[in-house]
Amino acid sequence: MKYTPGQKMNRNAARTLAAFSESMFLLLGEKEFDKITVNEICQRCDYPRATFYNYFDDKYDLVDYCWYQLSKDIHLDVVQARPSGDALETVFDEAFRLFSDQRDLLNRIVAHNPIDSPLVTHFLNHFTRTMTTILSTGMPKRHGQTPLVLVAQYYANTVLLVLKWVFLSQHETTLAEARTYLKELLTKPV
Q1: What is the C-alpha to C-alpha distance for residues 107 and 115, in angstroms, rounded to an integer?
Q2: Could you give the CA distance from residue 180 to residue 119 in angstroms, rounded to a whole number?
Q3: CA–CA separation, 90 vs 98, rounded Å?
Q4: What's the gap between Cα 101 and its chain centre?
Q5: Which residues form the signal peptide (predicted)?
Q6: Residue 141's pLDDT band (boundaries 50, 70, 90)?
Q7: Is the CB of residue 124 less than 8 Å from the CB of residue 160?
Q8: d(Cα 45, Cα 51) in Å, to the nearest integer?
Q9: Quick one: pLDDT at residue 83?
Q10: In CATH, what number does 11-63 get?
């Protein structure tokens, strides 16, 4: 990717990246990722192809940036400010809020890009990596033999399993109910 996520940028660059990101999300809600072209993205946001290629190598690069932006919207910086024992609950609550706030967009994207499509799989993998990183830095230090990063991956995958069930499989569930499911899966596996 030509743009490095997290780097400081001017307003013009921020506007440009936001326009490309928004265009990609709108197009994902209308058609399959594989059928979206760079020309369509540029036409949708009214930028020339040259501007697109100033920021991204290709549409896959742009979708990576879109996932980065969604992850950033979870406000995971809150995890570092809370006691480490609350990291999992904080990550889950913030992810649930994001998925809930973006439910319409998720439904439109999944309507054109099924749950088992490469696009959704790519998103879920990105999200798992992000949560694993946050959890491995925000969880209390363990004295057991299992490496912390493995424990963090287990928690991240379980969080994502509950979120997928609620939002991508469209089961009406409150945050409190979802927290209960998560807790039961983590403490009393079947």
Answers
A1: 10
A2: 29
A3: 12
A4: 13
A5: none
A6: low
A7: yes
A8: 11
A9: 44
A10: 1.10.10.60
* AA letter at 186: L
CB 158 within 8 A of CB 185: yes
Amino acid occupying residue 139: M
pTM of the shown model: 0.77
Angle between helices 148-163 and 87-101 (to 10 degrees): 30
Backbone angles phi, psi at 8, to 5 degrees: -70, 140
Task: Work out the average pLDDT over 47-74.
Answer: 90
Mean pLDDT for the stretch of residues 41-60:
96
Question: How do the domains of the chain map onto residue ranges?
Answer: 11-63, 73-187
Q: In the structure encoding, which two tokens stand for residue 46, read together?
A: 């009214």
pLDDT at 51 over 90: yes
The DSSP 8-state label assigned to residue 140 in this structure reads P
For the record, the structure tokens of 121 come out as 């799989």
Beta strands in 28-186 (DSSP E): none
pLDDT band (50, 70, 90) for residue 11? very high
Q: Which residue has the tokens 């932006």?
A: 69
At what angle are helices 148-163 and 175-187 packed, to 10 degrees? 140
User: CB neighbours (10 Å) of residue 152?
Assistant: 22
Residue with tokens 């230090």: 141
For the domain spanning 73-187, the CATH number is 1.10.357
Residue with tokens 């799989």: 121
